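Section 5.1 Outputs to date
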Amino acid sequence: METERDVIIIVKGGTIQGVFSAGVLAAFQKHNLYPRVHSVYGVSSGAHNAAYFLAHQTEIGGKIYYEHLYKKHKFLKDLSPKIIWHKCWQLFIHKKPFNIIDLDYARELETMGDTKLDVKKIRTSSINFYARVFNPETLRLEYLDGKVDTINRLIQSAKVPPYAYTKIKNELYYDGGIMPTRDFIKNVVRKYPDKKILYIFNDRKTLPRVLKFLLWDLLDILFKARYLGPMYGFKHLFSILNYPYIETLARYKNVHVVYDEANTSKRERSQERIYTSYKHGVAKGEKLLKKIGFIN
């Protein structure tokens, strides 16, 4: 008799913060949650982590953060006020992107060497896989089948203008977490009231925490609007507080939330702290499995 697939996993993004959800998914793999999983939805770094989970390669997915990507984050210490001013000038005067997040490096990691993603295993999995992306032409979110053209889907789901870049041009889609949205609630949580929704945040998304960084969010809108246009800017502005807060998700009895209580920064450069966040994710993942009665 086949086990009922009564679990849906949602994995949010957050650049280097994604190491936490990589740890949570490593716990899910360790305890073989797969027979219970109906679908996995991912966005940005969460989509990449979801792919390594479906490929049964979560250990590799975690190492990508604390053995590879953390080196790329060292560029942050070299961002002097002069360089930042120059990049802002180039954006607003010449509409040139910042280009500080190298997605071609992510593509290289996922297609070559010891970190290569087993795309074939993902395509043959009985678990549905969706990557959420943003369509700049319609200003709407879309869900792409992550089993089709997997690597490009993952790169598109993590491309945040004007910060991230790739040499491949004319890509239609951008990062599906480009602006605050409760889209996962609308299209997943409410759609599957009979399923257990395991909702993984890479930071602690509460209203007080969002308000704390509101000025930075307003600046972020200004940067993105210069690149994507004023209509995007207005849409983002009017949805600036429209996050799926932990308090909001608590209203849904079928939703089980897990988040990084250590609040790892998106700008974290310490390999030790990034690895600690991964181990924290593993522990929180096992705790969640106990909560839903999957393990003792």
